[in-house]
Amino acid sequence: MASFSVVSNISSANAQANLVNTNVSLQRTITRLSSGLRINSSGDDAAGLAVANSHRSAQAVLTQGIRNANDGLSTLQIQDGALNNIATLLDRMSTLATQSASSSSFVNRDTLQLEFADVISEINREANVAGVSAAQAFSVFVSNNGADGVVSGAIDAADATDLGVNALDISTAAGAATAVSTIATAVGTLGEVQATIGTLQNRLQFAIGLAQSQVVNTKAAESRIRDANIAEESANMTKFSILTQSGVAAMAQANQQASAVLSLLR
How crowded is residue 251: how many other Cβ atoms within 10 Å of its Cβ? Predict the structure, then answer.
């Protein structure tokens, strides 16, 4: 049996409780719409936040890995350019040696030897400038996989000594003939160094492509967890706005109900 009371307004209390819940939901929806994020605090989705944060961390590692790989590519390109120049210098050495090796040649072999020595010095200079005057270990960290995240290789030296042409002398026909054969071997040795650098360049390009794909897919995975569904939240805001207005109206009616009890005392 229903009762009337001015001390406890149960209808108003119910309306207030519902209005509080609606207001909390409305504020959460407004926060999501204004930030664009479904998860704005740990309480919104604690488990989802942990997964989203792990995806974001992976993106940071992969993005820096791409920068590392591009820096490594720049270094390899500098070295590759120097090796191309050294190959041209070996061609010049081969030309000079061939010219001097001809016993019927009337050229001045001392003059040829002076240029020959200058070319050897230039090979050493360019090898030093490009950082290929000594064997080196090449290593670039490009992935968030600690075990398989490194592209590495060993690059042999390509100065005159390592190419075996530093002690050549073409001031005699016999020495020049020996130099022609030795330089041919040096060209092959240089080609092996260039092949190593070319292989590393290709590996880094493939690694960059994979890392970029992983960044995109990881970002998409994070977005599905962290980002707000704007269409859904817009509908929610409309719903909670209407519920707030109706809740205020219901609470006003509940308060008027208590006032109506006073008419019994007249």
Answer: 19
Q: Which residues are CB-contacts of 24 (< 8 A; sequence separation ≥ 6)?
A: none
CA angle 130, 132, 135 (to 5 degrees): 155
Strands (E), the chain: 136-141, 150-155
- Give the SS3 label for residue 240: helix
Angle at 190 between CA 187 and CA 194, to 5 degrees: 130
pLDDT, one tens digit per residue, over 103-120 is: 776 778 999 999 999 999
* Dist. CA 43–CA 47, nearest whole Å: 9
Whole-angstrom Cα distance, residue 27 to residue 29?
5
Domains of the chain (ranges, CATH numbers): 46-226 (1.20.1330.10)
- 79-111: pLDDT as tens digits: 999 999 999 999 999 999 999 998 776 778 999
Of residues 19, 31, 72, the one with CA closest to residue 237: 31
The rounded distance, in Å, linking the Cα atoms of 86 and 192 is: 13
Instruction: Give me 109's structure tokens.
Output: 């072999």
Global confidence as pTM: 0.76
DSSP code of residue 44: G
